[in-house]
Automatic annotation (TrEMBL):
Recorded family membership: Belongs to the AHA1 family.
InterPro entries found in the cross-reference section: ASHA1/2-like_C (IPR013538), START-like_dom_sf (IPR023393)
Organism this protein belongs to: Uliginosibacterium flavum
Organism superkingdom: Bacteria
Protein name: SRPBCC family protein
Domain Activator of Hsp90 ATPase homologue 1/2-like C-terminal: 23-158
Record-linked Pfam families: AHSA1
CDD domains found in the cross-reference section: SRPBCC_CalC_Aha1-like_1
Length: 166
């Protein structure tokens, strides 16, 4: 299976859809996405680090984190989990921005499809209030490329987890 590239999928004008096949079982990918100790190891585009203040992965739970860019800019984020169906789907309402930057608000749905043979298709769909809001996030924050880089970082992280003793 091709695990080398994330793809942006065609969707509605107010959506960003990115998918990637990962060389890891679904439960491992789920854990990497929901365990704050793992998320900080790979979350964000290339050159970013992440600090998590709170990550309560359950319906109504809050995820507060700050992404630190390579340009020393901070990007505080706060999300509320709307739906959590382990290990299949996570839905959350996201709000965030670069400090003093325009707000990036959307609903995100991540689905984890077990492809067998220890492969998982991770699909992320971000839905914005309008096409204009989507376009602003693409222009101001590089959301499509950043999403692809984030999933690449996850793909790079997972082999190290697979090698760890149980």
């Amino acid at each position: 299976m091709d695990t080398t590239e994330s793809r942006e999928l065609a969707g509605a004008p107010n959506e960003i859809r990115i998918t990637r096949v990962l060389n890891a079982p679904r439960e491992l990918v789920w854990a990497a996405m929901t365990d704050p100790l793992q998320v900080v190891q790979w979350w964000g585009p290339n050159g970013f680090t992440t600090t998590i203040r709170k990550m309560d992965v359950r319906p109504g739970g809050v995820w507060q984190h700050t992404m630190h860019g390579p340009d020393a800019a901070d990007y505080p984020n706060s999300s509320v989990f709307k739906e959590v169906v382990a290990p299949e789907r996570i839905v959350y309402a996201h709000g965030g921005a670069r400090e003093n930057g325009p707000a990036a608000n959307f609903f995100a749905t991540s689905t984890f499809e077990d492809l067998g043979n220890k492969h998982t298709r991770l699909s992320v769909c971000m839905v914005f209030d309008s096409a204009e809001a989507r376009d602003m996030v693409v222009r101001e924050y590089g959301a499509i490329e950043g999403g692809k880089q984030t999933l690449q970082r996850l793909a790079n992280y997972l082999p190290g987890v697979l090698r760890q003793p149980a």
